[in-house]
Amino acid sequence: MTRRRSTTVCATALTAALALGTTACGGGPVAPAGGDGKDKELAGQTLTVAGVWSGAEQKNFQKVLDAFSAKTGAQTRFVSTGDNVSTVVGSKIEGGNAPDVVMVPQVGVLQQFAAKKWLTPLSKDVEKSVDGNYAPVWKGYGSVDGTLYGVYFKASNKSTVWYSPDVLDQAGVKPPKTYDELLAAARAVADSGTAAFAVAGEDGWTLTDWFENVYLSQAGPEKYDKLAKHEIKWTDPSVVEALKTLSKLFADDKLLAGGRNGALATDFPGSVEKVFGPKPEAGMVYEGDFVAGIAKDEFGRKIGDDATFFPFPAVGRGKAPVVSGGDAAVVLKDGKNQKAAMALVEFLTTAEAASVWAAEGGFISPNKGVDLGAYGDTTLRSTAESLIKAGDSVRFDMSDQAPAAFGGTKGAGEWKILQDFLRDPSDPARTAAELEAAAAKAYRTANQG
Question: Both 132 and 205 in a single domain?
Fold first, then answer.
C-alpha cells in the first residue's frame, strides 16, 4: 500500500510548485517544480484534464494537480465541462482536441465511454495500487467487463441527514437510529412549531437519493444491485414497499417546509438554506456530505456545532444504508499524452493525492489509506470513516448507474416520476409502473445504441 506523506509535506511541495510556476486555476498550465528526478521525464508534457467541477471544487482539485506537477514536472490544464460531460467530451474527441484525462461523475457515463471505445485500459501499476488502497467494490464500479478503466478519486457519502441541534433540542428528540424513530422525531419537531424537513423536490435527483437509501436498507444490497442493472423490474414488490415507506414522510404536509407544494418549489441549495440560513424554516435536510459546504460557506455555520448530521437510519430489519457517489479518473485513447495521463491516474490512487484536497474540505476519499487526520474537521472525518468502514457494503448511487434518459435527465424519467410521487404519494404501485415503463424504454434504447 502506498503510504501518504503528511499534509505538511504535501503543502510544502505545493508551495514550491507555486513559487516556481503559475497555477492553472484559471485554465493556464502549471510550470514544473520539485519532484524526485526519476519522474522528471514527464517535464515538458502538458496534460489536459476535464471534469464537471467549477468554483471552489475546481480550485481545490487544481491543488491536487499542482502537487502532481511538483512531483513529476508535467504541466496541467483543467477544463470544466459543466454537467453534460458526455456531450462535451464527445465533441472534443470529434474535433481532434480530446482531453487526456476525464473525471467522470457517473458509473453510467464511464460505461458509455467504454462502450464507445473511448477509453484506454488502466495500467497494471494503477490496478495494483487500486487493489491495495480501495475496497473491491470501487474497482468494480471502475471496471467494464472485467477491465479497469476508472479510478474513483472523489466520493460522497449520500447517507447523511443534516440537522440543527437547537431545533431537535427544542423538540426534545435525539438523532434517530431507525426510520420509525425518524418519523417520530419528525412529528415531534413539527409539533414544536418548526417543519421537520426541507425537501429539495425541485431537483429530482435528491428524490432518487431518498428512494435509494430507503430501498438499500429495506430490500438489501442484492436486490439493489439487480434493480440498478434492471435485472428486476421496477414493479417488483420491493420497489412498491420502498415507495410506501417513503410516502409515510412525503404524504404528511406538516412534516415538510411549505408542504409538498413548497418542497416541489425548493431546489437543493434552497433546502439547505431552509435549515441553516438566516431564517430557518425546518430542522432537518437529507442529502450527502456536501450539505456541509453550503452550510459553512454560504451561511457561516460551524460544522459539528450548529450544523451536524446523523447517518440515514435503518429501515425495518435492514442495516443502515451507505449510498455513495463519486468521480472517476479515466484516460482517453485520443489524448495526446498517454504516459503522463497514466502517471496522473496512478498518482490519484494514492493517499498522498487525496490528502491534498482532504485538507481543504468539501471532499472525502474512498481510499482507505488516507489518514483521517488529513480531513479538516471532525464531521468530514466521520463521514469519511463511515464510508471506509462500510467497505463492500457501499452502493453507488443507483440513478448514476442507469442510462441518463432514465436516471439523469431533468424533467424526465426517474427524476420527473418521483417529483410526481412527491406531489401525490397516494398510489405507490402506479408510481412503480411508471418507473418501470420509463426504465424499460431507456435501457432498451441504450442497449440498441
Answer: no
CATH number at residue 45: 3.40.190.10
The band of 13, judged by pLDDT with boundaries at 50, 70 and 90, is very low
Q: What is the pLDDT of residue 119?
A: 98
- Cell readout for 219 is 430490500
Expressed in angstroms, the distance from the first to the final Cα of the chain is 40
**Based on the domain organization, do 87 and 207 belong to the same domain?**
no
| Contact of 300 with 294, CB cutoff 8 Å | no
Query: For residue 209, what are the contacts with CB-CB under 8 A and spacing of at least 6?
Result: 158, 286, 287, 288, 323, 397, 399
Work out the burial of residue 26: count CB atoms within 10 Å of its CB; fewer than 13 is exposed, 13-18 middle, 19 or more buried.
exposed
Residue 95 lies in a domain: yes
Query: Cα separation of 443 and 12, whole Å?
Result: 49
Q: In a 3-state reduction of DSSP, which class is residue 3?
A: coil
Q: What nine digits make up the cell of 14?
A: 505545493
Cell 406538516 locates to: 254
d(CA 134, CA 139): 7
252 and 375 housed in the same domain: no
**What pLDDT, in 10s, does the model give residues 27-61?**
333 333 334 444 577 999 999 999 999 888 899 99
In sequence order, what E strands does 23-124 have?
46-51, 75-80, 101-104
Query: For residue 75, what is the DSSP state?
Result: E
| Set of cell numbers at residue 191 | 409539533
For 206-246, write each residue's pLDDT tens digit.
Answer: 999 999 999 999 999 999 999 999 999 999 999 999 999 99
Q: What is the DSSP string of 364-416?
A: B-S-TTS-GGGSSSHHHHHHHHHHHHHGGG-EE-HHHHS-HHHHS-TTSHHHH
> Would the pTM count as exceeding 0.85?
no
Chain centre distance of CA 134: 16
Write the pLDDT tens digit of every residue in 104-128: 988 988 998 999 999 999 999 999 9
Domain around 316: 160-321+402-448
Q: Indicate if the alpha-carbon torsion angle 331, 333, 335, 341 is positive or negative.
A: positive
- Chain position carrying cell 423536490: 201
Q: Is it the case that residue 14 has pLDDT exceeding 70?
A: no
The share of the chain scoring above pLDDT 70, in percent, equals 91
CA distance 297 to 184: 31
| Long-range CB contacts (within 8 A, 24+) of 184-191 | 186/249, 186/252, 186/255, 186/284, 187/252, 187/255, 189/283, 189/284, 190/254, 190/255
Predicted pLDDT of residue 408: 85
Phi, psi of 285 (to 5 degrees): -140, 130
The enclosing H or E element of 305 equals none
